[in-house]
């Protein structure tokens, strides 16, 4: 436990300066420079951040921080991703079951709500049977 706390404290001390101060950034000069570049120069000096895929960039950034700043191993990453996917599926299942129960207990007391419920359930069964039929066609 002390090893984990020491590692966490070291990471907090490294990031303290950046997390406790604020800066205001503007990119007017960069936008002006990009607008004045020729198409060949835009290919050679590709520094337009609007073209970044931010999700991929942030994942690489976090992996680099984990590996090079915190000096942690990346070997446990696939197991952690698998665990997160399992937790996400459990959350989605729980939320779906909760919505269905709330619908059945509180809302489905009227005939119109009951008709809507039967319509939605029949659509789900038709959807599932379509996928079962289409998967056997291959």
UniProtKB/TrEMBL annotation:
- List, in alphabetical order, the GO biological process terms annotated in this UniProt record: long-chain fatty-acyl-CoA metabolic process
Looking at the UniProt entry, the stretches that span the membrane are: 92-110, 116-133
> What positions does the domain Fatty acyl-CoA reductase C-terminal occupy?
1-72
Drop me one GO molecular function for this one: alcohol-forming very long-chain fatty acyl-CoA reductase activity
Q: Does the keyword Aminoacyl-tRNA synthetase apply?
A: no
Q: According to the UniProt entry, where is the signal peptide? A: none
Put simply, this protein is called Fatty acyl-CoA reductase 1-like
């Amino acid at each position: 436990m002390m090893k984990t706390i020491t590692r966490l404290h070291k990471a907090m001390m490294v990031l303290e300066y950046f997390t406790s101060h604020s800066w205001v950034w503007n990119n007017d000069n960069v936008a002006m420079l990009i607008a004045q570049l020729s198409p060949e120069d835009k290919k050679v000096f590709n520094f337009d951040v609007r073209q970044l895929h931010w999700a991929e960039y942030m994942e690489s950034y976090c992996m680099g921080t984990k590996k090079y700043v915190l000096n942690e191993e990346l070997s446990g990453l696939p197991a952690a991703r698998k665990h997160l996917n399992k937790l996400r599926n459990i959350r989605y299942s729980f939320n779906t079951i909760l919505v269905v129960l709330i619908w059945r207990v509180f809302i489905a007391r009227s005939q119109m709500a009951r008709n809507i419920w039967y319509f939605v359930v029949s659509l789900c069964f038709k959807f599932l049977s379509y996928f079962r039929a289409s998967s056997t066609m291959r």
